[in-house]
Fold this protein.
Amino acid sequence: MTDLSFTHDAASSRYELRRGDDLVSVLDYRDNGSDVALTRAFTNPLHRGHGYAAVVTARAVEEIAARGDRTISAVCWYVADWFRDHPERAGLLSTR
């Protein structure tokens, strides 16, 4: 998966994963200044089954963690499952 490019489109409130010129997966979010709610992971149907949603989620979580000033709310079911599968990242989750 070295041919993938990851970008943060802050104007659209989403993270994007591209393979060449193709947009393969996105992760939408809402940021209230202290918490980033990851609201929807979506992979283009033509590109499903290759793990792209996991890649865009992991890279978004890495970027948010690197900032160090936000917690994460796993609103999207896929993101919630990703955190379940990556308990080492649970410290980033906001408490309700």
Summary: The CA atoms of residues 5 and 21 lie 9 Å apart. The chain is about 25% helix and 35% strand. The chain has one domain: 4-92. The mean pLDDT is 95.
